[in-house]
User: Fold these one by one.
Assistant:
Number 1:
Amino acid sequence: MRLPVIVLASIALLTACRPDRSLPPQSGDALLMQKLVGAWSFGDTNSFPSGTTIIRPNGTYITHTASTNRVGRVSIGGMEGKFYVSNGVVFCTMTMTGYASGTMASAAPARVVRVDDRELVLADPAGHETVARRISP
């Protein structure tokens, strides 16, 4: 009598622990978005511009930048917005900017060349690459 109860309990446990097959598998873009989440640092004191970007799991970001122009004037700015990934390309829409020179509705798309636990490499439509270093997950 105990054996059927143990078998039924085991079957119930295995059924409860199996993956939910009704949920669709995550796409490569969804996995890529997860890898992008965290804080990233780009540029350095000699580059134009340098700063940090924080990418949140909900598809929003915030960026703070500093840059020096040819005559040595330092500009500080920032922007916030939403992003999504489609076919390995990041698309951003800016919802708020802090630049004195004007505002932009969206940024040029950037293809993800590579992303891992330490580094993110993006390429703009002209093929110029930007390297960012992860500063926190």
Number 2:
Amino acid sequence: MRLVIPENFGIPPIPAGWYRVSVIGNEVQTSKEGTQMINWHMRVESQGSDPAVPTVGRMLFERSVIVEKCLFRLNNLLKAATGGGLPKGEIEVDALIAYVVPRILNSSLLVQVIHEEWEGQQKENIKNYKPISAPVAA
């Protein structure tokens, strides 16, 4: 028996734009190179501009890689979720993870979804974060 596997299983990508999300889960993982990262699970809580593409309840995923050159993204996520940034000074990776996870988990914020090509396919990515109270340009 032959099967035809659809390209996207009939689920259109979440359109580009700003969405309110709730951070509902996370996983801490270690890459093959030994770098720790936090995978965030975010549930979309707002409808996008195209009513033909339902977005409420859809999932977005974000990865925070815990290396110095990437900490600005984690800092921006923490600021959007809580209003406060990362602690200053030196900190062990495990202590940093223990600091940010309970602060970000179960929070609500705005994320900017963009589309980028990856391996020949359009992929949803989160470009930016804002607190719920921040104005969003149309």
Number 3:
Amino acid sequence: MCSSDLLIYLKIFVMLVLLVNLAGCGASISKDLESQKWEFTAQQVKQPPSTVMFDGKHVTFIKGDNCQTYGYKIKKKPNGSTQLIMGKKSGVSHRAPIKTFEIQKSARSYKLKPTNKFAKHYYGEAKLVPLKDANSE
């Protein structure tokens, strides 16, 4: 085997490894979000924090006896950032105002930076903190 063939195989291998890693980022965030309850705080929300639970394709916000469920998905962007997309009811659809955030892990919590006008208007900058950590502060 000549060195140019080896170089081509090496490039293909590196590209496959990067592709697998990038595809797994959204999945690992989803698994982490689904693994526990979260406290959700947002800049534009003047009420006490909500408890948030993720399961499969849905996120539920709980405040007292009131709860709202939205569809959600995690999407890896070409620039390397990860996006959290939330829509109303059973899924992310064109009939409901979609709210999009850039989601970044920060220690054990997640920072949510709004990336569309609905997310900016309804929430502003937001944060998800594991409920057990939020209660110990």
Number 4:
Amino acid sequence: MQQPFLFALLILIPIFTYFVARRRFPHFVRCSVGASFGAIVSPWALGLYSFYFLSPWGVAPGMLGLVLVLIHGAPGFKIAVTLELIPRGVVSGITSQVIVDSINGLFGAVVYGLLGLAIDKLRNRRVRVGVRQQSG
């Protein structure tokens, strides 16, 4: 099995995070899952995209992976070129891909983590308001 197909297994990290966070940090489950999903979404999308070339059954996950790669690949690339971590106008190799995916992981973890935190705050506020109304 080639390495890009193994990237598809990265989705197990947010799933594992969900079960751990549900027990240990019940008020911040979505924040934890969002941060872990944001950290792995770029290489995971590449793994999904590689299924396109596997068989006719891989067309649907491959197209989903292509869309995700197009969406989640751009921020890290733009940041890396702006900070001159990778050369401008050159076909990038594996080193550049590692740099771009690392930046995408940091950027995605912050964005998805903050989105999850906002959802957690809204849900926790509703739960507290509902408890107050029942007890009062």
